[in-house]
Design brief:
Layout (H helix, E strand, L loop, with lengths): L7 E2 L5 E2 L1 E4 L7 E6 L9 H12 L3 E5 L16 H18 L4 E7 L1 H12 L3 E7 L5 H9 L19 H10 L3 H6 L4 E6 L8 H10 L3 E6 L10 H15 L1
Parallel strand pairs: 4-5, 4-6, 6-7, 7-8, 8-9
Antiparallel strand pairs: 1-2, 3-5
Helix pairs in contact: 1-8, 2-3, 4-5
Length: 246
């Protein structure tokens, strides 16, 4: 596999921070890893997953969406809809650099919602993995940020993550990704933790009910939203095992 010589840029030309690891030459799969809201490519779960993929012979790219981590762009412009467009631009660049590559997208939390909406429209995503995926976006916003004022308050008290009106509007307008889930046609793995207080397992159950036998749902007992305390290795093992069998 080859990583684009000029790196990755989104549909607006903003440079995206990314970490590429090459797998075995005869492995045609290239895995793209996307994070959740206020996250970045260097979250421990993402690093652990990429390491496990490399050991199993898969090429992979961890990326930070624009405005997050070391990527260009402003965080206040970050929305699910923008990140869907960014992901599709990344898929195009990776496809041009690797004509025969078969692409997988792994999205965590909000990145999971991004993956559903992208996979519903973009058949370049041959396999989809949702880790603690966000489903009902309007409800999520109200539950986590509904008492905050856009333009004044911070998301989870992070100075680098001011809440924007654009983010609120997009979350409310989308409402849910269930409609997108109905249009996903490729193999789909849903992984959720039983102790996830950020995005309860019911979210994955909702889209699993839509997909039925076309998806696989795995619940990790006693694990939190970000697969902390060593549980990221168990999550990574589930993903790698599924990729090899699906």
């Amino acid at each position: 596999m080859r990583f684009p010589a000029d790196g990755l840029r989104n549909h607006l030309g903003e440079r995206l921070d990314a970490s590429f690891e090459e797998g075995e030459a005869d492995n045609p799969w290239l895995v793209v890893i996307g994070h959740g809201v206020t996250g970045n490519k260097d979250r421990p779960w993402a690093v652990t997953l990429q390491s496990a993929l490399s050991e199993a012979g898969y090429s992979s790219v961890r990326m930070s969406f624009a405005g997050n981590g070391a990527s260009e762009g402003a965080f206040v412009d970050s929305t699910i809809s923008k990140e869907v467009a960014e992901l599709r631009a990344v898929l195009e660049q990776l496809s041009v650099a690797n004509k025969s590559a078969r692409l997988v997208y792994v999205g965590h939390s909000q990145g999971g919602a991004v993956g559903v909406l992208a996979a519903a429209r973009d058949r370049r995503i041959k396999k989809l993995v949702s880790l603690a995926g966000m489903v009902r976006t309007a409800q999520f916003f109200e539950r986590k940020f509904g008492d905050l004022v856009p333009g004044r308050d911070l998301m989870w008290d992070k100075p680098e993550c001011p809440l924007s009106a654009a983010y609120e509007s997009d979350m409310v307008a989308l409402g849910s990704v269930v409609g997108g889930a109905e249009a996903v046609v490729g193999p789909w793995l849903l992984v959720h933790a039983t102790d996830d207080s950020v995005g309860p397992p019911a979210a994955s159950h909702t889209v699993y009910a839509v997909q039925g036998r076309r998806a696989r749902l795995v619940e990790l007992e006693g694990v939190d939203h970000v697969f902390s305390n060593g549980s990221d290795a168990a999550m990574a093992a589930v993903v790698v095992d599924w990729l090899s069998q699906s």
